[in-house]
Design brief:
By secondary structure, the protein is of the alpha+beta class. It has helices spanning about 10-80, 85-100, 185-195, 230-235, 270-320, 325-335, 340-365, 375-390, 405-410, 415-430, 455-470, 495-510, and strands at about 105-110, 115-120, 145, 150, 155-165, 170-180, 200-205, 210-215, 240-245, 250-260, 265-270, 395-400, 435-440, 445-450, 480-490, 520. The strands form 3 sheets. Strands 1, 2, 3, 4, 5 and 6 form a 6-stranded antiparallel sheet that branches. A 5-stranded antiparallel sheet has the order 8-7-11-10-9. The longest helix is centred in the N-terminal third of the chain and has 68 residues, at about 10-80. It is rod-shaped. The structure holds guanosine-5'-triphosphate (GTP). Guanosine-5'-triphosphate binds next to strand 12, helix 9 and helix 10.
Length: about 525
Amino acid sequence: MPTPLFAKLRLRGLILILAIASVLMTLGNSFYATYQIQRQLLITNTLEANRVYASKLANITDVFLSTAQSQLAYSASQLSSKIDKPKQLASEINRLYKQSAMFNSVVVIDIHNKILEVAPISLPVKGQVVAHPTISHLDELKKPLITKPFISKADNYLISISHPIFDENKQYQGHISGTIYLEHDNLLNTILGEHYYNDGSYLYVVDGDKTLIYHPDPQRVGEKVFDNPAIDAVVKQHSDAYAIKNSADIDMLAGFAPITRAGWGVVSQRPTKATLTELDDHIWQVFLRSIPLILLILIAIWLSARFISKPLQELANQARVMDNKDSQQKIINIHSWFYEAAQLKRAILKGMGLLHDKISQLHTDSHTDPMTALLNRRGLQQLLEQYESETQTFSVIATDIDFFKHINDNYGHDAGDNVLKELAVLMQNNARQQDAICRTGGEEFILLLPSTSADEAFIIAERLRNQVAQHTMPDDVGVVHISLGVAYWPGSPTSISQTFKRADQALYQAKRQGRNRTIAAEQP
Ligand SMILES: Nc1nc2c(ncn2[C@@H]2O[C@H](COP(=O)(O)OP(=O)(O)OP(=O)(O)O)[C@@H](O)[C@H]2O)c(=O)[nH]1
């Protein structure tokens, strides 16, 4: 019958598979859990860092705007009642333009929206009337104002920070306005742009209409951004941090904070991938560093699997070749150090013992006469083969009960059996340890006397005959006699069968000569 596939699996292999699978699964699980926890932590920290950073930039920008407004307010106070004095106007706005370095240009505009003075002077807008595109009512200019982005007469995309100018009677005379060109270098751009990193992190500023007024990519300044949850929230003046997708569909971790003074918002963001790349490297480093320990664990598992499976494997190997002569000793020598192996070993040895007993019982039965417990013909044959192979000389005494038929006839078959048993006992008592006694037929017996000459055998035969003649048989049978024929086997060249024939002939001679006697066969 073919062995099932699974039956070929060894315990050691199974233990190894189980243990290695457990170790790998545990390790995999640990790495996965660590990765997930670290990932979440990193994302949370990055979001918070971006929010704090956006908040800081928003504050700085707020301070910048506040300072710009203060500077304009100061200039406006200096120009009170001097709106019609061009020299003083020009002097003050030049001072402001150069000293503050906050603005790309500074202008003074009267109540008719006419530009009275401009700094730098190179700007060709003096005397022009400007209709302010982001102002719905001129009254808005009567108070400090930060405009929405717009394109100026000189074709610059800018925001304007203005402050009204009043005369001594608090009459509105016009306003002073500092502009910040959104697509040019200026102090605001420097403040925001200095924080541009190489790992893909960047920040941008939107106004209240979700229009980009600062972006590291100048091309995008002026672009209106839709469907961005961070921008949606920051224009509502919220400060928070979200994981979002940017306009290029890249996952970003964005923190944002409002610039309340202007209604703008700062968004600082870092690509999620850039954040997690560090973690991937980190986990990979942890894995590489744990390889030696993992290898040690695997070696330990392999040795343990060997150690645990060894007794069972050895028992299985021996059980497979149990017909081997040394099997029993080899099984005894197996070190069964744990309970199951010890019990298995005990059971195998017990089974082997029982088997040996049974086999030896069968061997004995097949070589023994059941009634007398003497050797039968097969037993005799085996012994003779041994003597022949060892060239063991011996004498043979062929024995037969005289007139045994009469005993059966007169006392019954059972009494006859008892006579046979009694005679077997007499023969055993009369024999030496090395002698063999066989019952070869009904009332026929053979005695084999190793290393015994014909003369000695004759004496032994006679002694037996006399003992039998003096013995009283049971069941009222009384005295019986036996006749005996003796022959000697001197080893080769005479055959054993010839020797037996001569012993038989001597026995028949004894019968013919009147029974109850011993005849020694002539030596050939
Ligand atoms: N009780 C009993 N009788 C047996 C057994 N085997 C053989 N016999 C009997 O032994 C008798 C042998 O008789 P014979 O061969 O004529 O020999 P004998 O009567 O002993 O005569 P001689 O050998 O010439 O002296 C027979 O009657 C067999 O039936 C046995 O196991 N038990």
